[in-house]
Amino acid sequence: MRTSQYLLSTLKETPSDAEVISHQLMLRAGMIRKLASGLYNWLPTGLRVLKKIENIVREEMNNAGAVEVSMPVVQPAELWQESGRWEQYGPELCRLTDRHNRPFVLGPTHEEVITHLVRYEVSSYKQLPLNLYQIQTKFRDEVRPRFGIMRGREFLMKDAYSFHIDKASLVETYGKMHAAYCAAFSRMGLDFRPVQADTGSIGGTGSHEFQVLADSGEDLIAFSTGSDYAANIEMAEALAPAGERPAPTAALTQVATPDVHTIDEVCAFLKVDAKQVAKTLLVLGEADEAGEQPVIALVLRGDHELNEVKAEKQPGVAKPLTFANDAQIQAAAGCDAGSIGPKGLSCRVIVDRSAAHLADFVCGANLNGHHLTGANWDRDIQGYEVADLRNVVEGDPSPCGQGTLLLKRGIEVGHIFQLGTKYSEAMKATVLNEEGKATIMEMGCYGIGVSRLVAAAIEQNNDAAGIIWPDAIAPFEVAIIPMNMHKSHRVAELAERYYAELKAAGVDVLFDDRKERPGVMFADMELIGIPHAIVIGERGIDNGVVEYKSRRDGSKLEVAIDAIVAELVARLGR
Amino acid sequence: MRTSQYLLSTLKETPSDAEVISHQLMLRAGMIRKLASGLYNWLPTGLRVLKKIENIVREEMNNAGAVEVSMPVVQPAELWQESGRWEQYGPELCRLTDRHNRPFVLGPTHEEVITHLVRYEVSSYKQLPLNLYQIQTKFRDEVRPRFGIMRGREFLMKDAYSFHIDKASLVETYGKMHAAYCAAFSRMGLDFRPVQADTGSIGGTGSHEFQVLADSGEDLIAFSTGSDYAANIEMAEALAPAGERPAPTAALTQVATPDVHTIDEVCAFLKVDAKQVAKTLLVLGEADEAGEQPVIALVLRGDHELNEVKAEKQPGVAKPLTFANDAQIQAAAGCDAGSIGPKGLSCRVIVDRSAAHLADFVCGANLNGHHLTGANWDRDIQGYEVADLRNVVEGDPSPCGQGTLLLKRGIEVGHIFQLGTKYSEAMKATVLNEEGKATIMEMGCYGIGVSRLVAAAIEQNNDAAGIIWPDAIAPFEVAIIPMNMHKSHRVAELAERYYAELKAAGVDVLFDDRKERPGVMFADMELIGIPHAIVIGERGIDNGVVEYKSRRDGSKLEVAIDAIVAELVARLGR
Prior knowledge:
The structure is a homodimer of 574-residue chains. The first copy, chain A, has 574 residues and is α+β, with helices and mostly antiparallel strands. At the A-B interface, strand 1, strand 2, helix 2, strand 3 and strand 4 of A face strand 1, strand 2, helix 2, strand 3 and strand 4 of B.
């Protein structure tokens, strides 16, 4: 490609409304332009990267035995009514009506459509296992689209759905998808980790996220220092502290704590460490037959954070997790939120494993402006349950039994899931098994955020000058930068020759044939992040050389005029 | 691909709701499945064809210097309000609102979005010409989706938009697109014609449709027997008959024609040829300042058909063309529709060139149950205009001046258009010209119905057994059909060997490894339309041969076991 025939659209200034580096660089490098909130046009440079990622994903899916199909963006509402998600899905599901006033949705995902398709196309266990995928436009009406295409409303996704006669077959295909994802992200040159993930409302244990590590990531991942263990913090288990709980030594005492509401204020006022304080939160339980929702107390150590996913999973806790309001707190504890404590509450009390290991601790007295000191479980407070309720913190022992936990941030770019029979049962997707009996199929689903990968790769690969693409997903592999070619016949001729030879060798080349100062050309090629460059100048030609420049390490190399094309082809592994 | 790991989904029965052969065969060959009216899932076999067509289009667009981008399916309504199409576009434009109640549309086309993009990205004539394209999902809420994906609601389209400093540059790119379209459709192995097309409400003369010839086509195309001239019948000019109009010989006579309403009835009752009858239609004119729409009479020869596109183009005729209702006819002509005639009408009268060449003709008397015979222009009827109002018929002289016209049916698969400044003017898309003066850009637009091409190719390439794909767009190029391989070790081994060798040679192979009778396998491979097959049997192996079979001509050839792969590679031009 010649820049003179291309839409380069690079920007010198960093757009003020872009918060994360990938969003800033995608705008500056002329990769995307905003059309409306969460809706982006892909300019040529961005689309080239997107297509390369798409092709790697396609190849690895094909290698793993998945078969490509394509389903519509617009889906009839009936299928969503049949699966139950018409009611369950919130306003992220964009609903519309056609000219005949029939209801449709813009597909945020395709479980319903694929289950509908497969229930009619597959009738026998002999046709299984079957793994169908598509790479297709999705729409989710995010309440707050942000970070450019990282969390857009319209995006490109690879979604695969597998169908099985039994769980063992599902587990086998799940393993193949796990391997295919690792292969695809490795080929893209990304630093990523498969991590155990929460399975949400569906239950079961089979789910992994694929996280690209980056400080700007929205997800927090716990790693073991002693093994391969990695899990989303939503999922990472916090073990009970080692050893026996210390015996009580202090007497239970009620102390006045005027104007003390937060843990920090309690610690400052009573001069204790937050680790010696128990904080109590009230949430709502599931409604009883009369529709009444009881209150449930959750108790954590003062320095720990509630893990809402874990809390929501406790039997009897209302889903989604709902905190008690002021009136409900007053009714249950007789005080304001800042003074609740586990002693004397008549509701259910669930204590986090670490909080349950405390002795002689401080907690609210269920009386405004008062706390208890020297509190002890069993001696002072009885009738509580113990569970894992908190987020792990760095230094916690790893639940795998080896090493301790480290925390890193990640960007979720893939998610694989053993769905089981959630959709196949609701939509009656059965096949005849070997005995000729109708059997509900087991299903798996496997997603990759194709457009999000573009941003994730940039978060991992950039410097002050711009993007640094891994070869496999670079918009162009080689930049030809001829200095003052519009004045030098020799420079122009050599540039044209390299352009022709590299194209013939199947290399993606951007030939910067603009009438621009060398500085402008260098800045643009570095901003766009082209991994390899040939710089052609009069002086070099005099010496029989051109300059090779690596974007990643900035190294420069003088190469003989006739050797540079072979050098590049070798570097690119052609 | 092995059929055992594939979703073949062939059907024995022809689905009853499929009218055209391509729709029937796409369902039977397991290419598509209906999800809802006008919405289709693409099964693996269909998607493979679609992707091959998409890739040919992409390559030819790139070869012609167009640059690929991608724009969202969901577009903000403001842009459509700015261009004026928010009001102009009918219910085919699917409108929706997001969770914040902001209005959007599902893009049926992207003129607004691309013009919006380019007005911000391009500021100087130096960046022009620029030709941007995408291959992307479109949605048009057709009132009556039909013929499967031929006229679906969601479909895949290649749409390109070019931007220019002046008309000359537009004409040059238009020519390149014309050539690129010819190259693409030729590579697909299609029998097609570029034909002159109506430019609709935009005006100008620069528009061509690309029509795949097929009896099931919705469009009628006029060809010259003496030149390359080809035009959509909407556009093909009907010349005035040669020579002078004959002089009047008969006297004007009013005759009673009781119960005579249609041209056929007039001819039968008066024993005249329809060619000697003038029929008169009343349409509405443009509203005057008071909002009143005058009636305008259109007069055609009894054997000719009104061309509504030509009628609509007459100055003063209301757009869209609207026929007068019974009350308006009564008020203007004093009779019912079956008795209108040009004599004595007080409204404007426009006479088709052929009708204006009649002498001694029959026409309505503007009196119920009466006609005039021996009518003559000028002598009996004055104050009329003459224009081209009719559809051409076979045998008409070609408007190019050479030969006569033939009519054929076609399927429109592409349309190129010199848009001019319709959008760039409405949306203020300007660049600075060489003198530094803001200049509105000239635009062209160029569409290809990518998904429709799949159906069009089938309409042209099928027989009683199924589809016959041209090599370049076949879902698979070669079928390996091993007879009873589950019983014969030698057959299985040879099949596996060919499968590996052909894949290594880059050939798309479908290896039918099912436990099925040979008859079932032959029927499926022919239905799917794979152009080349290798049939492997025990008896052949005994003689050192396998059978090559051509899907297109049905020819069979015994080929030495070690020669067949080279034979196929050669046939495929690898």
